[in-house]
């Protein structure tokens, strides 16, 4: 994938179904709103099926949000090259395809720690669903290019080591889910 190009502005990616409550839409909307309100030079690139929540954000932050709609999987590689970091606000799993692809593309990620996310990815992890803490960590990465590069390198190395062997990855996922279920450490309430 090579070295990322230096840009004058920071662009954050949000790739996922903005309509699904389990994707953390309500929390994601709050995070995006706070970040763009507090950081006028910041930009978001959102890839998701069209929903009114995105259109409301786009109306409010016309110059700061680029909404590209639904993107075919085969075209996603181009989006990762356009962002400086990826946020995932998923409420049930954060070792999702966009997170893994971002790390593979040398893009640092910020996620919530659900289902022991920290064991599956190398990114910045936020405990609970604390919007202010999430925003604080994003702002820390915005200001610290060295940290972004270090996280990007670590994430890519980790994906190369752990996710390129699908059988090994599948076993880790099954073990993690079984452990979470047995020990109720995943934070889910039934």
How is this structure best described in words?
The chain has one domain: 3-Layer(aba) Sandwich (Rossmann fold). It starts with 10 loop residues before the first strand and ends in a 7-residue tail after the last helix. The model has no long low-confidence stretch (mean pLDDT 82). It is α/β, with parallel strands linked by helices and 190 residues long. A six-stranded parallel beta sheet has the order 3-2-1-4-5-6, sandwiched between helices. It has helices at 25-38, 52-60, 76-80, 97-104, 131-143, 145-162, 166-183, and strands spanning 11-15, 43-47, 65-67, 85-88, 109-112, 124-126. The protein is built from seven helices and six strands, in the order E-H-E-H-E-H-E-H-E-E-H-H-H. Helices cover 45% and strands 13% of the residues.
Descriptors:
globular; single chain; 190 residues; alpha/beta; Rossmann fold
Gap between N and C termini: 41 Å
Give the uncertain stretches in residue-range form.
none
Give me the secondary-structure category.
Answer: alpha/beta
Helix amount, in percent?
A: 40-55%
CATH superfamily: Glycogen Phosphorylase B
CATH architectural grouping: 3-Layer(aba) Sandwich
Indicate the topology.
Elements: E1 11-15, H1 25-38, E2 43-47, H2 52-60, E3 65-67, H3 76-80, E4 85-88, H4 97-104, E5 109-112, E6 124-126, H5 131-143, H6 145-162, H7 166-183
Parallel strand pairs: 1-2, 1-4, 2-3, 4-5, 5-6
Helix pairs in contact: 1-5, 4-6
